[in-house]
Amino acid sequence: MNPYPLLFEPILLEKVWGGRELMKLHKPLPDALAIGESWELADRPDSIAQGRSVIANGALKGQTLREAMSHAEDVILGDGKRSHEGGFPLLIKYLDARGNLSVQVHPDEAYVEAHPDTHLKSEAWYIIDAEPGALIYKGVDPDCSPEEFASHIGTDKVVDDLIAIPARPGDLHYLPSGTCHALGAGIVVAEIQTPSDTTFRVHDWGRTSRALHIEPALACIQFGPGPHNQTIDAILRQTQTRIEPIVVEGTCSEILLSTDFFDIERVRLMHPGRLEIVTNGMPIIWMILEGAGRIDAPGAHTTPVRRGDTLLLPAGLNDGQAIFDEPTTLLHITLPSPLKGLIA
Predict the structure, then answer these.
(1) What tens digit of pLDDT does each residue of 100-132 get?
(2) Is the domain of 236 the same as that of 273?
(3) What pTM does this model have?
(4) What's the N-to-C CA distance of the chain in angstroms?
(5) How many folded domains does the chain comprise?
(6) 197: which residues sit within 8 A by CB, 6+ positions away?
(7) Using an 8 Å Cβ cutoff, are 241 and 233 in contact?
């Protein structure tokens, strides 16, 4: 079988804070349900209900990604490494927050080392749309002590201890393990994360249907100055020092984030045009945020794509090209190279 771009059936999750905005990304929302998440690419353990993406196109249609990797791992994953649970090492989602998400934290390295049943989780939010005045909460005020923060849990004062940042479409925010955070109401994001789901909630905006995890959360939250707790001034400085975009013949490429878990690049075609697909032996994920077109792969396989589609370009896909019929914006997501960090 010739490698080709893989599309997946979205896994749609009803959430108390969800809505109907994901229809704008062509998600087939069930009638009258508040959908908060669309899992675009997922390969979670058997214990997670509906946790594995099903391929929606081509010769592998109907298989889960895990099943496809079981007999074509070299083609799909190449030099990439599976997660600690044996699955694909990233989880890709769209989120529609019509209400505030819980204030939460994911365990840091020290906590995971002491509690082997938990797992690290680092994630990034790319803001697609935001209502005027919408906020994200990212980190704790560096002047707030753990004792002061703990005393405010159970009251709305805990929100005042968080760093509130205006949500602006096109911004990307990294949330490494240990960062206390919440996605505010009125925002649609693309979320790229490691595939753990260990989450400790400290505040749920008056909702009482879900458990809080105060003790483990306080053990994981990073307090004081540092990258976990960036003020708005620090965010602005970071934006201003970002690597300059590269513009060639109407195509703009901009590195938004590089981590030990994933790298994110934004690619914008200002006019109809084409992109050559070069995998370098590693899988690539594309999230089409605007635009439409097709991907031509060897073997005369053509895959139409449009806004809202998420594609996995297998590591073995060589000599493919994407042809876009209109201006297009996409996120180009990769796993870290095996050579990352090595000195020549």
Answers:
(1) 999 999 987 788 888 888 887 889 999 999 999
(2) no
(3) 0.93
(4) 36
(5) 2
(6) 44, 48, 121
(7) no
